[in-house]
């Protein structure tokens, strides 16, 4: 079994969706790829994939090897590509980290968990089905609830507001930091940092 990690960023493919709230997972992966100096290339697993090392281990050694994967399918059918990329690289579910948008978390906040429910997130539901387990890690980037009576599906498929766009780099940075910390120090240490408001 390799010591490799697989970090997956959820979203919908194509420029039409690139700035949507639903695509925040893929935006975080772009930030992680920039940190590793890796470029995404299409892969036979129906994902765009980049490989590198992420973060620095306590003591200063380079962080673990990681495969960054952006499924090329639509959000609701993310499971097939995620399962395929994990199998291709021989990464067990407990070393798969899925980065996704989360309505139940205020915009700008990041929460982390392993396993648990999907909270109505169809992308996660499909991944759980394809992996055959809920026991993978999730980095949940808060996008907040829609205003008024706006339909949640419409809300996540809209671009971030002008005000949010000013703050978005901080959210992407925090979520990328959270991924790095899970890989280098473990989930509990990362939860301790990101679940406690300074």
UniProtKB/TrEMBL annotation:
Active site per UniProt: 22 (proton acceptor)
Entries under Gene3D superfamilies matching the protein: Peptidyl-tRNA hydrolase
Site (Stabilizes the basic form of H active site to accept a proton): 101
GO molecular function per UniProt: peptidyl-tRNA hydrolase activity; tRNA binding
CDD domains for this protein: PTH
Keyword Repeat: no
GO biological process, one term: protein quality control for misfolded or incompletely synthesized proteins
Pfam families: Pept_tRNA_hydro (PF01195)
Location of this chain's protein in the cell: Cytoplasm
Enzyme nomenclature, EC number: 3.1.1.29
Site features described as Discriminates between blocked and unblocked aminoacyl-tRNA, chain residue numbers: 12
UniProtKB keywords: Cytoplasm, Hydrolase, RNA-binding, tRNA-binding
Leading EC class: hydrolase
GO CC entries: cytoplasm
Chain segments annotated as transmembrane: none
Reactions accelerated catalytically: an N-acyl-L-alpha-aminoacyl-tRNA + H2O = an N-acyl-L-amino acid + a tRNA + H(+)
Binding site for tRNA: 17, 74, 76, 122
Subunit structure: Monomer.
Cited function: Catalyzes the release of premature peptidyl moieties from peptidyl-tRNA molecules trapped in stalled 50S ribosomal subunits, and thus maintains levels of free tRNAs and 50S ribosomes. Hydrolyzes ribosome-free peptidyl-tRNAs (with 1 or more amino acids incorporated), which drop off the ribosome during protein synthesis, or as a result of ribosome stalling.
PANTHER family: PEPTIDYL-TRNA HYDROLASE (PTHR17224:SF1)
Family, as annotated: Belongs to the PTH family.
HAMAP family xref list: Pept_tRNA_hydro_bact
Name of protein: Peptidyl-tRNA hydrolase
Protein source organism: Flavimobilis marinus
Lineage: Bacteria, Bacillati, Actinomycetota, Actinomycetes, Micrococcales
């Amino acid at each position: 079994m390799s010591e490799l990690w697989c970090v997956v960023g959820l979203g919908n493919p194509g420029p039409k969706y690139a700035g949507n709230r639903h695509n925040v997972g893929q935006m975080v992966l772009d930030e992680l790829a920039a940190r590793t100096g890796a470029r995404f290339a299409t892969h036979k697993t129906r994902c765009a994939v980049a490989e590198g090392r992420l973060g620095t281990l306590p003591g200063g050694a380079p962080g673990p090897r990681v495969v960054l994967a952006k499924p090329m399918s639509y959000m609701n059918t993310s499971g097939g590509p995620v399962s395929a990329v994990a199998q291709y690289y021989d990464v067990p579910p407990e070393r798969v980290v899925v980065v996704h948008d989360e309505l139940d978390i205020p915009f700008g906040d990041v929460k982390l968990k392993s396993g648990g429910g999907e909270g109505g997130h169809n992308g996660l539901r499909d991944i759980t089905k394809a992996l055959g387990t809920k026991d993978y890690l999730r980095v949940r980037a808060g996008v907040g609830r829609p205003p008024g009576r706006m339909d949640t599906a419409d809300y996540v498929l809209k671009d971030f507001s002008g005000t949010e766009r000013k703050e978005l780099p901080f959210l992407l940075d925090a979520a990328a930091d959270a991924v790095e910390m899970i890989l280098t120090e473990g989930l509990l240490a990362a939860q301790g940092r990101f679940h406690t408001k300074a």
